């Protein structure tokens, strides 16, 4: 992580200041002595310094699905903060809120919208009417219940959605799909349609069990598996390594699935304070250990993987709507 990144995030704070007046009732709870000690002792992840980007940015956006085996692991919060960190280093980022049960990307961003995906079926509606230019330079498309209905539309209506959504690929370098949690059909459709998958888990046994269930289903149906772990709410780096290695070894042995690990996020009181203020923590507390972890993973997304050919946004749309070329 470079100082330049942190400076860019501080500029975002200046553009979108956080104040108690804007969010009355959002009091900062004091961090526990144990949490403060952990944060001081924690080492900031050090991403490798690459010689060149993962691949040159183009109109063929990378489509990355962010999912989890169970709810409550911080998936959406991670997605939004990762998007802001990617934007801070120059990437054009867009989020598609595809979490049918808990669609709250707008809440984490402190933004809102009156239009949703299915409004695109209206004759006088275009992409610009649905697309939300959120704070901190991150755009998003609110899905609502429209995501679920979109997959059951007739061919003519699917073609309309495909045509109106096709332009998204030219508006972003990276499109993050915030899926729901679990193994529902809609969740699996999204992660199988995406070129890359980030699976968020925590060290809790139930979270690990559910994460393995996602990997098992993914390994069974994915054409070209490309999955990485994100371990959230850890207390030390060794814990993160143990969690990742356990899942990686199990996946390799029983599923013959090669699973990577993008990184981890420390348990941090600043995350809870930011959530209460409806402000992403990489902006509210850019120097916190959690924010430094997110910025390290943003570097990993951009530079940590070997170049590969992605099918991009249009390919994602064709797969999610089962629309043949």
Produce a short descriptive summary.
The chain has 325 residues and is an alpha/beta fold. It is built from 15 helices and eight strands.
Tell me what you see in this structure.
With 325 residues, the protein is α/β, with parallel strands linked by helices. It has one domain (3-10, 63-320): Rossmann fold (3-Layer(aba) Sandwich). 45% of the residues lie in helices and 15% in strands. It contains 15 helices and 8 strands. The chain has helices at residues 3-15, 33-41, 75-88, 105-109, 127-130, 146-150, 155-165, 168-171, 185-193, 205-221, 237-255, 269-276, 281-284, 289-303, 312-320; strands spanning 62-68, 93-98, 132-133, 139-142, 174-181, 196-201, 227-234, 259-266. Strands 3-4-2-5-1-6-7-8 form an 8-stranded mixed beta sheet, sandwiched between helices. Helix 3 packs across helix 14 and helix 9 (185-193) runs antiparallel to helix 15 (312-320). The N and C termini lie far apart (41 Å).
Helix content: 40-55%
List low-confidence stretches.
18-40, 46-58
Coarse shape: globular
The figure for the number of domains is 1
CATH class: Alpha Beta
Please identify which CATH superfamily we are dealing with. Answer: P-loop containing nucleotide triphosphate hydrolases
**Which CATH-level-2 architecture?**
3-Layer(aba) Sandwich
What is the tally of helical segments?
A: 15
Query: How many distinct beta strands?
Result: 8
User: What is the end-to-end distance?
Assistant: 41 Å
Q: What is the residue-averaged pLDDT?
A: 82
| Secondary-structure element pattern, one letter each | HHEHEHHEEHHHEHEHEHEHHHH
Q: Kindly identify the CATH topology.
A: Rossmann fold
Beta fraction = 15-25%
> Radius of gyration in whole Å, from Cα?
19 Å
Instruction: Output the structural class.
Output: alpha/beta
Main sheet properties: 8 strands, mixed
Spatial ordering of strands, largest sheet: 3-4-2-5-1-6-7-8
């Amino acid at each position: 992580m470079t100082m330049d990144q942190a400076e860019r995030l501080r500029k975002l704070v200046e553009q979108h200041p956080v104040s108690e007046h804007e969010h009355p009732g959002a009091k900062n709870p004091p961090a526990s002595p144990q949490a403060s000690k952990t944060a001081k002792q924690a080492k900031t992840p050090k991403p490798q310094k690459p010689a060149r980007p993962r691949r040159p940015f183009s109109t063929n956006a990378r489509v990355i699905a962010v999912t989890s085996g169970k709810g409550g692991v911080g998936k959406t919060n991670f997605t939004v903060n990762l998007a802001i960190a990617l934007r801070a280093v120059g990437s054009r980022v867009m989020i598609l809120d595809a979490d049918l049960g808990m669609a709250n990307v707008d809440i984490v961003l402190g933004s809102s919208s009156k239009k949703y995906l299915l409004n695109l079926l209206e004759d006088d509606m275009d992409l610009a009417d649905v697309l939300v230019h959120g704070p901190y330079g991150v755009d998003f498309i609110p899905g609502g219940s429209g995501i679920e209905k979109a997959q059951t539309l007739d061919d003519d209506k699917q073609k309309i959605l495909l045509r109106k959504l096709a332009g998204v690929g030219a508006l972003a370098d990276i499109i993050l799909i915030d899926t729901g949690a679990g193994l529902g059909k809609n969740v699996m459709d999204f992660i199988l349609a995406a070129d890359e998958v980030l699976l968020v888990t925590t060290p809790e046994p139930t979270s690990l069990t559910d994460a393995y269930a996602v990997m098992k289903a993914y390994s069974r149906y994915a054409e070209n598996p490309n999955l990485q772990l994100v371990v959230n709410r850890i207390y030390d780096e060794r814990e993160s390594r143990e969690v990742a290695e356990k899942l990686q070894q199990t996946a390799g042995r029983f599923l013959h699935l090669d699973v990577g690990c993008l990184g981890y996020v420390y348990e941090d009181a600043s995350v809870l304070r930011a959530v209460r203020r409806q402000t992403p923590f990489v902006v509210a507390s850019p120097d916190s250990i959690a924010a430094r972890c997110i910025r390290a993973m943003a570097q990993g997304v951009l530079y940590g993987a070997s170049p590969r050919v992605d099918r991009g946004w249009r390919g994602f749309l064709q797969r999610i709507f089962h629309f043949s070329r």
